[in-house]
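Q: Hi! First time asking for a complex rather than a single chain. Here are the components, and I think there are two in total. Is that enough to go on?
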Amino acid sequence: MPVKVETYDRVEEAARALSASRSARFLGGGTLVMRAVNAGDQSFDTIIRLRDPDFRTIRMQGDGLVIGAGVTMAALVANRDAVFLAPVARVIGGPAIRNMATVGGNLFASGNYGDLAVALLALGATVQLAGSGSRSMPIDEFLRDRDRHATSLVQSVTVPRPRDPATFRFTKVSRVKPKGVSLMSIAALLPQSGGRVQGARVAYGAMGPMPLRAIAVERALEGQALDAAAIDRAAALAVEGIAPPTDALASSWYRAEVAGVHLKRLLAGERR
Amino acid sequence: MAKKPVQFRLNGSEKAVFVDEGQNLLDVLRRGVGDLTPKYGCGQGTCGTCTVLIDGEPHLSCLTLAETIDGRQVSTTAGLARGSELHPLQAAFMDGFAAQCGYCTPGMLMAASALLERNPDPSREDIVEAISGNICRCTGYEPIINAILAAAKAGGARRYG
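A: Yes, that's all I need. Here is the structure of the assembled complex.
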């Protein structure tokens, strides 16, 4: 099926075109949209492109980092202000994918993909949408309603930079090293005050239809010293309220069995 | 459906082609320009055999919208050898039996050439990482890794001309 390509220089124009059509998809790096084109996806007939260079910039704003949705994983790895995200961006795809895949696209990646979105969820990022309904929302809210936002253009993501980089941790569990899609990924932000965890955020990837937070784990950690006993209690609640999916990589049962083990290692700061 | 004019440099020579809307770069290279060295594998960004360099960096040509390469430089395996003189990577792949069925080879060569341009003396780990987006179902990777190491020793980063 032929697709039409519309190219815009300004983000507002691209956002307007995208919201005006139910059968348009926005092209980031191509790793999702061109993949769909190659697979014969009939759900869209128009590709919207944006050439705005601002869309690909990273800048500091107060304590936060504003990352343009068109920034690639490779650009993120190379950016000095984004060092805390480099360990996440570096394990996404191979070198060619990292030169193409974008931050904005990652928010829409489904299934075993979308590791960066998991990290952004744990970090408490906000998502900026462009166009007439221009607004900013917590990433939690954005991901919950992700399908509804398919006609909105994500302009940027703002990430609060962790004061102490050691309080942010990420692990990706895959069957193939060094490159493999996620069987699960876990990101945790564990800020401490007076030796106790305050404001913990823990997020999973590939444990549901979209990145989700491990609320029971967060509650178990809150106000606790990050010692062996607290970690054990949190790990025991790893899949509380979560129904992991079964897919080609692992069964729901397997994911539920091993989530606590990987979570425990992450919380204890064990490197594998 | 409208055709769009695209101009780019392929292995150093100027190309001007009309592309279909939504057509990917791999298709333009193979059918529009006649460069059959990049291969169509999965069309999904998983196998890496369509890897080409765009402005020196590895990209998957099957997932690249063709019209986005207007004004850019594309390098493929067809540009590695100089006449009958093979690129050190090609020679090392031959000497080390790093190609069996050969389907992954063009992607492996492009990923490796991007690595050697950036890092003329890579470690084994650097090589494993550089070809991590390229799948080979024959060799078990060892001959490929060894060939890239050998090419680096033989001055594989050296640009011709």
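A: The first helix of chain B runs from residue 25 to 33. Let me know if you'd like any chain examined more closely.
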